[in-house]
User: Which sequence fits this backbone?
């Protein structure tokens, strides 16, 4: 007999998992929802990857007595970012699509410039022992 870890996936038989994936592929293909699942997956990855790194940086740079408040500020900034995304999403029907996506490209470009502008002071705050 093979070990259980070779024949199961999260406690279920591998064949059942393949059947589930096939059924989901058929349903999403029929309704044209693959793009929605993929987009949601990419958005979640974009939210999850910077969070531990940012919280680690906040913990390292904040004074010891206000670390928890600074971590709360990190989460608050995430809230405002999600709120701004929802607010800008209202313009989807009010603007032409090329202007809408150009607006997001301009916002991304401005955010990139802002990050480049604070990179040097941030490196000085971190210190020479931690290279970025």
Assistant:
């Amino acid at each position: 007999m093979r070990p259980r870890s070779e024949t199961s996936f999260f406690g279920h038989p591998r064949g059942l998992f393949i059947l589930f994936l096939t059924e989901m592929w058929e349903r999403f293909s029929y309704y044209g929802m693959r793009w929605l699942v993929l987009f949601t997956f990419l958005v979640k990855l974009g939210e999850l990857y910077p969070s531990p790194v940012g919280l680690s940086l906040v913990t390292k740079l904040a004074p010891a007595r206000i670390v928890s408040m600074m971590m709360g500020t990190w989460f608050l900034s995430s809230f405002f970012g999600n709120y701004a995304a929802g607010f800008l999403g209202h313009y989807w029907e009010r603007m032409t699509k090329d202007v809408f996506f150009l607006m997001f490209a301009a916002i991304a470009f401005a955010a990139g410039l802002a990050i480049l502008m604070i990179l040097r002071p941030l490196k000085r705050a971190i210190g020479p022992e931690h290279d970025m």
Notes: The CA atoms of residues 23 and 29 lie 10 Å apart. The two ends are 50 Å apart (CA to CA). Residues 1-47 form one domain. The mean pLDDT is 82.
